[in-house]
Amino acid sequence: MRLYVGDEWAEAHHDVELMDVSGRRLAKARLPEGVAGMARLHAMIGEQLGEDADDAQVLVGIETDRGPWVQALLAAGYAVFAVNPLQAARCRDRLRVSGAKSDAADAHMLADMVRTDSHQLRPASQDSAEAEAIKVVARAHKTLIWERTRHTQRLRHALRDYFPAALEAFEDLDAADALELLAKAPDPASAAKLTIGQISAALKRARRRNVGDKAAKIQQALRAEHLGQPAVVTAAYAATAGSQTAILTVLNQQIKTMQEQVDAHFGQHPAAEIILSQPGLGPILGARVLAEFGDADGRYASAKSRRNYAGTSPITRASGKKKVVLARFVHNDRLIDTLDTQAFAALTASPGARAYYDRLRARDLGHHAALRQLANRLVGILHGCLKNGTLYDEATAWPPRSEILAA
Q1: Cα separations in angstroms, 187 against 174, 178, 245
Q2: Residues 374, 342: contact at Cβ < 8 Å?
Q3: E strands, 35-164, in order
Q4: Which end of the chain is more exposed for a tag (fewer CB within 10 A), N or C?
Q5: pTM beyond 0.70
């Protein structure tokens, strides 16, 4: 016996619907988040299965693959399918052309999707606790870096409007020395009064080289004449810039703290050695790769499946006589960012990767397109190493072209 469950999560509750193999609704309810809601869901399923519970299969469709609720569903032995929200939206349009939407109707739609199309959906695999922990810290670390970039751009825009000399004086606005000096002198007048000793002290604390020359250049840039704003406007800008420098200082500290956590968790995972053997992957990038791919056995049936999930493999659109091959624009942003960075680093770490990239460029492929194809090749190499439990080997990964042609 099979039972199909649609689970639409919305803030603090779940709308669920139970359906049989014919598509008939058996039960529906709105359940609270937490233990009480999960207990009620188990009771509803138990009432429908009755004495056949031991031999029954329960398939659950839900628009997420993480969180305590999903973990509880997997622990109960249910087959959970994490439906992509884009897939769910397309299916919703198929069932209701009016555009109407409700949580109860979405629960019905999810149940019907797993009833008719479960073979087309990716089951949610249960990663190890170690991999889940790595995902938490790796994503937190990357999010903090993204936040630092956003706040740095906000600071840059503010300085451009009232204190352009600071942009000439400091190459990296999020560097420790720049933040210290901007916090001490956030406006042109006070910055012009900074002495060589004060600037040098900040550079030394930031462990800069050629302190004397850099301090003189910074002081000269801060004392150069520029167009300015009225005093009251400058004071307002200085206050906003001061808040941004304070935020960036804290972000730098927390990024360093989270990096230590990533290193500690990733180093304990059994697959860390294999991942670190890949060209272009260090502890941080390796942790992100492991976090986004996961470590559940059997999640990726082949290297092609892993490439498709990564978003590095191309897609083909063919209709009539027209056929085009395009890059995938729907992908995991965190994963594709990591793989692009790995591909770029592999250009200097792996002679084979460099030769492969050069051949692509010789075919008039652009830099980013060539990097994407290199990343696609590296994902396949990683899959083979993880599947066979072997470390990366340059000769095996990049055999001579004569051997490839002969094969």
Answers
A1: 17, 13, 13
A2: no
A3: 57-62, 79-82
A4: C
A5: yes
